[in-house]
Amino acid sequence: MSSSIWGSVFFFLFGLMTGVTLFTFLRAGTIYEYTDTLDGAKLPDTDAIVVLAGGKGRISAAGDFWFRYFEKEQSREIEKAPILYLSGLGPQTSWRRLERHIRPGVFKAMRPSDVVLETESRNTEENAIWVAKNARLRGWHRIVLMTSPYHMRRSRWIFEQVLRNAGVPLQVETTTIDQEPFSQEEWRTSFSGVRITILEYVKWLFYTTFWEPKDLSSGF
């Protein structure tokens, strides 16, 4: 093949990759086009607070959210605070290690029976599958899902698909945990923001275009 043809191929591929990169950069911010079902001011009746571990500060923020229910339990405004369900923790996680991630006053109020440490799931789909298992086993009807703003749109979508596929009628409310070192309005101004947002956007495209939830028709 002549050098001129190789040159044409190179410029075509370069232009294609440049176009794809630019399109991704411009569209990546759409992952933040999601509105929570809860504003954080009111505490709805719920069976469990489900926080997806992985992002910085998520467990601590979820612990603080649970503590608001605990205070209502103490004042007898509600019968019992919901379960704090920590999803996707590492296999080495233990009750004592959990203490490092929750404010001392909140941890002191907790009993092991108030918390579920789920250590099996490795990604968002598996997070949803294990929540579906627990919902069926424990008779849950409603949960509050908590994760980072960049992760919530895909998480809610995956949870809906998995729960529908599993035949588990679980209502999912959402409230985001804004603990990242960048804001969703200014993600393009930091390397961390660009990296996390673009990666999440690529995952969003994959899951909404090619992914199908695992077949759970035989039970789980």
Number of strands: 5
Rounded to an integer, what's the Rg over CA atoms? 21 Å
Topology as H/E string?
HEHEHHEHEHEH
The major pleated sheet works out as: 5 strands, parallel
3D shape? globular
| Distance N to C terminus | 56 Å
List low-pLDDT spans: none
CATH class: Alpha Beta
Q: How many discrete domains?
A: 1
Mean pLDDT: 88
Q: Please bin the fraction of helical residues.
A: 40-55%
CATH fold field value: Rossmann fold
- What fraction strand? 5-15%
Strand order of the largest sheet: 3-2-1-4-5
Named CATH architecture:
3-Layer(aba) Sandwich
| Continuous helix count | 7
Q: Look at the helices and sheets and give the structural class.
A: alpha/beta
Topology, element by element:
Elements: H1 3-27, E1 48-52, H2 58-74, E2 83-87, H3 95-98, H4 104-109, E3 115-117, H5 124-138, E4 142-147, H6 149-166, E5 171-176, H7 191-209
Parallel strand pairs: 1-2, 1-4, 2-3, 4-5
Helix pairs in contact: 5-6, 6-7
